[in-house]
Amino acid sequence: MAVGEASHGDVQSPAGDVPAPGLAPDSRPGHPARPARPVRPPWRDFLRVHRLFGSSVLEGLTFIHRHYGPFVRTRLPLQLYFVAAPACIEEILVKKADSFRKDRTSRLLSRIVGNGLLVNEGDSWRRQRRLLQPAFHNRQLQSYAAVMVGAIERASATWQAGQVRNVHEDMMGVTMNIVAETLFGADVSADAGHLGRIISDLMEEFGRIMGLTARFQPPAWVPTPANRRLRASARKVDKVILNIIEARRRTQDGPEQDDLLSLLIRARDEDGGSMTDAQVRDEAVTLFLAGHETTALVLTYALYLLATHPECQARLTDELGRVLGGRAPGLGDLESLKYTDAVVLESMRLYPPAWGMAREALTEVEIGGYQFAKGAEFVMSPWVVHRDPTNFADPEAFKPERWDGDFAQRLPRFAYFPFGGGPRVCIGNRFAMMEAKLVLAVAIQRFHFEVAPETEVTLFPSVTLRPRHGIQLRLAARKSTQSR
Ligand code: HEM
User: Which CATH code fits 110-477?
Assistant: First the structure.
């Protein structure tokens, strides 16, 4: 179907402005390549699009982008705007961020994370963001590097060459221990396996109720089987977190600790009031979940991509040997580990852990030069945008070398946005990048990762982009650059 055939629905175009189909050049400042007004797939494609979304939301998103362009309006049966034009994404996330709030699906997350930073809004969000920010300052990040390296060293010391391992489970364990130790000063290694399973259940359950069916979900208090299961899993995570908080409150009079949890407990607002137990719990659960799930996924997919691209793994091994010469990496090495950085960036390009974000307009708002009513919902998917051939040649291919030189600087803003952007950009982005590179470096120093007959990837897009059955890889011994 040609883009121009589609009907345009009720979006108001600026007076006298009739853009050409596709990307219409626009001379007005701020819109260097303004997409044509949002296109609506014709009714005859309705069933096809609906079926695609039903079987795979990622295929559905990709299909509508390829067929109808970078700004699509659909009824599935919900009315949503799918935005894949970087300039429009920037408008939504950055330039007009004040005109939006998180969408319905994100708000459903409050069933798990309460009123934590991820779902909080307005003044309360601003206050909490200010409060949490110091835990992610440079000085703090520096103190986390040794914990990150220690966690992967301990885990990989139990691995053996020849084993076929579920690297997703392994990476979840490693990142869970890192977040618990750095942010809560706690050791959860004994609970890691158990917690990992609870979180998988939670994500599975959430995957069923989110997305296009979010609008039809009964409220949390209705005891549907899904709500009951979700609440039971959320309570189990709560229990672990509340135990950590309680233990910390008991030792609060002892030597002052410097981690995020102590900061939350000690925090005082302008009136001298402290955070309620409920708010401390909400922030702690948010950071615990947001702080390890996503980074574990980056590492899992990076290991998978390296196993399926041995030539890239060889280049990475070379770099690690050259820069580290067999010793453990530290924060000061990251600047020199350029290819390691490229592997992480390229893995997040192909498998962005946060595969979709969405916003709801709080007021009437203009995006891409068109007026939208209050309540309009906009979906932006890094999965789609990161695979757009306009900005990434051979977009489906894993090519870390594409990040050589100033490639990242030359990309249009928001052609690559694994951490979102604007005021609600991921608070842990630098933490995550540092963690991914340090953990990957140690894992690759110690073992060669290979594809096994059991290796298979079935994607399961829940809140994050998970591999439904984990990812099995075979470990082989490294000959030259053992760091032990
Ligand atoms: C590679 C790993 C990570 C990815 C891909 C990622 C991705 C994201 C994205 C896309 C958002 C914005 C969502 C939106 O705009 O709707 C976000 C927000 C957030 N992330 Fe991350 N994240 C990662 C790691 C982390 C880590 C390590 C932490 C904490 C230790 C963290 C904590 C948060 C929090 C608290 C928010 C909410 C921020 C706010 O709204 O003010 N994330 N993350």
Answer: 1.10.630.10
